[in-house]
Specification:
Layout lengths: L4 E2 H8 L2 E3 L5 E2 L1 E2 L9 E4 L16 E4 L9 E4 L3 H12 L8 E2 L4 E2 L4 E2 L4 E2 L4 E2 L4 E2 L4 E2 L4 E2 L4 E2 L4 E2 L4 E2 L4 E2 L4 E2 L4 E4 L4 E3 L5 E3 L5 E4 L4 E2 L4 E3 L5 E4 L4 E2 L4 E2 L4 E2 L4 E2 L4 E2 L4 E2 L4 E2 L4 E2 L4 E2 L4 E2 L4 E2 L8 E3 L4 E2 H12 L1 H9 L7
Parallel strand pairs: 4-5, 5-6, 6-7, 8-11, 9-12, 10-13, 11-14, 12-15, 13-16, 14-17, 15-18, 16-19, 17-20, 18-21, 19-24, 20-25, 21-26, 24-27, 25-28, 26-29, 27-30, 28-31, 29-32, 30-33, 31-34, 32-35, 33-36, 34-37, 35-38, 37-39
Antiparallel strand pairs: 1-3, 2-7, 22-23, 39-40
Length: 338
């Protein structure tokens, strides 16, 4: 872990243009509102631009065209990405040495790769294939016939159910469940529900990360698939038989009903809900709490319920807020003159 860097060293590492004292020392990273002397911060949102003039930070990561300010600046095209890279210079996460804890349960039919770390009370079931350099922290459970690629990282209490397949460099945060039964029930003549056997599986491709307590259900038949590079936030539900495209973001509390198809480079903001069998095209953005009952064409930005074009929704909200005023005008004795 780095304890300090000069601005000159930091600029070289990040590939930034430095405007300020190259010998100034950075000892830590902070948000712009809480930064103090010796700290590096960033401005990637115009909302915080005014704080750049009053922050106590020694240096700020900004875009090349950002106005001159009293603090030193490191200028580059993507300040937010540079901030992420800078954090890595000042913080090193825990490292887990290869080895298997004596309380772990490893089936004799499991195939374990080289240099893996398997923590206390982890369970690796029959016929599991676990790739090289995997880390399983306490109480992780891999059900029978799971296949996992290299550099898998499973935080405590992750569960991967039977026959699911995971690619390389997959990260699952605490409490993630991959491959639990999809929500499938058929109504019987007497009004009771008959459980539909969930015979499919779930597939996570390379470089997928799923955050805490999110669930990706197995399919009733076929598969549920999360394509390469997709990122899934806390408390997200991916219904059975769904597909999530490459490099798509599903933010907190998004819910996908069964057989949803989400394209590549989509962003579904917090609490967006997608009805079953809907197709969301590549590059779509749905703003927070939108409800999507129908297909959405590629490249659209949608909002509200039912989700409509974002600009139309903004106009509708503005009009809605004027309804009391408009109602008073309609009821006024002079309204006949309008």
């Amino acid at each position: 872990m780095t304890t300090s860097l000069t601005l000159s060293e930091l600029a070289d590492h990040l590939g930034a243009e430095l405007r300020g004292d190259p010998a100034a020392v950075i000892t830590g990273i902070s948000g712009i509102e809480t930064a103090s002397a010796g700290h590096l911060t960033f401005v990637a949102n115009i909302k915080y631009a005014s704080l750049a003039r009053t922050t106590r930070a020694t240096a700020i990561l900004v875009e090349p065209s950002f106005a001159e300010i009293p603090a030193a600046t490191l200028r580059l095209k993507n300040p937010y990405l540079a901030f992420a890279r800078a954090i890595e210079l000042f913080y090193t996460p825990p490292l887990y040495a290869p080895g298997i804890h004596p309380t772990a349960v490893i089936a004799p039919t499991a195939s374990i790769g080289k240099d893996v770390h398997i923590g206390p009370y982890a369970v690796v079931s029959d016929h599991v294939v676990l790739g090289d350099h995997a880390v399983l922290l306490p109480h992780v459970v891999l059900y029978p016939h799971v296949v996992v690629g290299s550099h898998f990282f499973a935080h405590a209490h992750v569960i991967v159910r039977e026959h699911c397949r995971l690619g390389d460099h997959v990260t699952l945060q605490n409490g993630v469940v991959v491959g639990a039964d999809g929500f499938g029930f058929a109504k019987q003549a007497d009004g009771t529900w008959y459980k539909i056997l969930q015979s499919g599986h779930a597939v996570l491709e390379d470089n997928v990360e799923i955050q805490a307590n999110a669930c990706v259900d197995r399919a009733s038949i076929g598969e549920t698939r999360i394509q390469a590079g997709a990122k899934i936030d806390n408390l997200v539900q991916v219904g059975h038989g769904s597909t999530v495209g490459r490099n798509t973001l599903l933010c907190a509390q998004v819910g996908l009903a069964g057989s949803s198809t989400i394209g590549q480079n989509v962003i579904l903001a917090g609490q967006v809900g997608v009805a079953g069998h809907c197709i969301i095209g590549d590059g779509v953005i749905a703003t927070a709490q939108s409800g999507i009952p129908n297909d959405v064409a590629p490249g659209k930005v949608v909002s509200g319920y039912p989700a409509v074009d974002n600009r139309k929704w903004l106009r509708s909200v503005a009009l809605f807020n004027r309804l009391p005023e408009l109602l008073r005008a309609i009821r006024s004795p002079d309204s006949s003159k309008m």
